[in-house]
Structure formats: structure tokens, C-alpha cells
Amino acid sequence: MNNTVSLVKCKSYDEAQYAVDAVLELLGGINRFVKKGDKVVIKPNLVSKKSPDEAATTHPAILKAVIRAVERVGASIVVAESPGGPYNAGYLKSVYTGCDMVSAVEGTSAVLNYDTKFRDVSYKDGKTVKNIPIIEPILDADLIISLPKLKTHAMTSYTGAVKNMFGTIPGTHKAEMHFRLDDRRAFCSMLVDLYSCVNKVPVLSIMDGIVGMEGDGPTAGKNRFIGVVMASLNAHALDMAACKIIDYTIDEVDTLKEAVERGLVCDSMEKLDIVGDDINSLIIRDFVKPQSHFNLLKLLSLPESLNKRVVSILSSRPKMKYSECIGCGECMRCCPPKAITMVKGKPVIDRDKCIKCFCCQELCPKKAVKIHRSVFNRLMLKFLK
Ligand code: SF4
Ligand code: SF4
Hints:
about 375 residues, alpha/beta, Rossmann fold, 10-stranded mixed β-sheet, two-stranded antiparallel ribbon, 16 strands, about 30% helix, binds iron/sulfur cluster
């Protein structure tokens, strides 16, 4: 089991090239992973069309730095992503442009992927899923370089290297996964299956943790300076290091818990093999967790199959703030169980149908979807803390 994570402190995106080269060097250098003529696919985290200063997506300076490092070896480079929303060339273009990926590849040999073909991959070892649709560039690569962003996440509490692989599933197939796996633990188990399946390529993960997101991530939270770039051949180890920095325990993050149980990573943060700068000097004790993280069902170890009304009192749910809503309907289109309808130009949620995947919150362009907790929920949490 590889528990090695390279870690370099980095004060700003102006130093991205230095930090990327340094984390690669600490793992043995780029030549250890890439040979001349290889097909390298770089997979950033482009959850939706967001400008780099919103800290929701991989910063273009990190992408450019990784491209420059791979170019030195003479490999071909494709940048590929299946963002939240539809998977077609027009939508990809708007996301690449909005996230400033277009300028990141300018003047380099890398190309942005517009080929929207995908194949169903059989994964017999999967615990939760045994058949996964995956976009073609990923399947045809000699090496995948994944560029996760260090952020919180309303549904999974944390999103990083393992969750970044969810963007290898084409467009609306992601919504189907949410619909089929509406229980958070099952969804996280699928993410671990997916990473193991894609990792056959293999995957080298380099995390953009210079400015991350705290609060109601992955898109509606607040920027938080963290000041780190990390890399690993084991995305679980990388996520464990990131969670140590933002002060999550293993038990609080279902993908990590699942990976530990499957023996894919060490069972303690102290057992990670960190090379480079001191991780302990980066720990942020007051890193703000998403509202949905404080889940009474989880704290009281109650099953999510309880009566729906009880569940809605005990857990968090999405709620629209109409004063901030522009009526674009994006939340309605992305909602896996079709729980949202537009009434007089504003979205209305059918609470009985809602599976609390928070896709609406993730893809709302105006941060108009808030995470709501009942008064009882808030009082109980105060009492339990
Ligand atoms: S996505 Fe956001 S802005 Fe658009 S309709 Fe839904 S809540 Fe309103
Ligand atoms: S309303 Fe939002 S949280 Fe509920 S199922 Fe739809 S997208 Fe998911």
C-alpha cells in the first residue's frame, strides 16, 4: 500500500510552477511517471462554469504548471473533464472558457477535449457498482494526472482526489448515479469503486490547495487560503492528508472510511508518509464545515431509512433563497429524481422526492440554494456538541 504524499507550501498562484515541480521531484521526478510519446490526460476539477477567483475549480496556473512539467518529457497532453450538467461540445466550451482553462493551454502543446464519446466499463471487483460509463480520453490514456481542488462538499462533506474522478462519468449519467445511490455511504462506496477502476490506467493526483473552499462547498462556500500543493500516486492517501489539514477525522469522510475498510490506505493519519514540508504547521482548526455535515442521523447513528418526516427534521435539506434566484432552471434540470418544478419562474422542491444529493446547490450559478437545518436540528446539535 502506497501512503506517500509529497507536500510543498505555496503562498500564491504566482509560485505554482515551483510548487508543482517540487511535489513531483519529491515523488521521484516527472520521468518516473511519464515517457516520451505517452498519452497523458489531465483531469482538472471543473464542477461548473466558475471563475478561478471563486476557488470552486482547479486554478489555471496549476494546470499550466503541470502541462509545462509534462511537456519537458515529450508526451502528448489532452485536458479532459465531464463537468456537472450536459456533456456536449458547446457546454464544454463554455465551462473551459469560464474556468479560464482556454488561457491555461494557450501557447502550450496541450489540447482541450471536445470528444464526448464514452464507453461502459465492466468492473467486476466493484463493491457497489460493476458497470461504469467513463469518458473515452480517460480510458485511452497512458497516464491520468488528476488535479483536484481542496474543498468541502455539501453531500460528501469533503471533495478532493477520489471525488474528482466523478467527473470521468459523462454528463447526465452522474445524475443517474445519484438517483440509484441516494444513500451517502453507498454513493461514497461507488466513488471508491470508480477511483479503483480508473486507477488501472494509472492516476497521479496533484492537489490545488493554495486557495480552497470552506463552508457550503463545492461551489457556494467561501474562499480560504490554505497554502499547499500536494501529490500522490494514491488518491486516498492524498485525501487523508488534505483532511488532516482541514481538521476532518477519517470517520467524518465516508470515502476515506470506505478506503480504510477496504485496505486501500493506512488506518491512521499519523501513518501517512509525508515527504516535503511539515503538514502539522498547515492544520486549520477552524476550517468551516458545510451545514449538511452536522447531520443528526449520523451523529445518533440512525438509519436513513427512517420515516421521511423524521429524516427531514433530523437532517439538512436544500432551500431556495428566492431573492437571489434568477429563475434560470439549472437546479430543475440537474435534479436526479426530478424533485424540482418551476412555478411562476421560481423553483419549488418536492420534499418527499428530494434525495438530498445537493446537486441543485452545486450547480446553481447564483448561490441561491442554501442548506437548511430545522430549529430542532440546530438545538439538538448544540446540545450534543
Ligand atoms: S439554479 Fe439557482 S438561480 Fe437558477 S432557478 Fe435554481 S435556485 Fe434559481
Ligand atoms: S432538490 Fe436538490 S438536493 Fe433534492 S434531489 Fe433535487 S438536486 Fe438533489
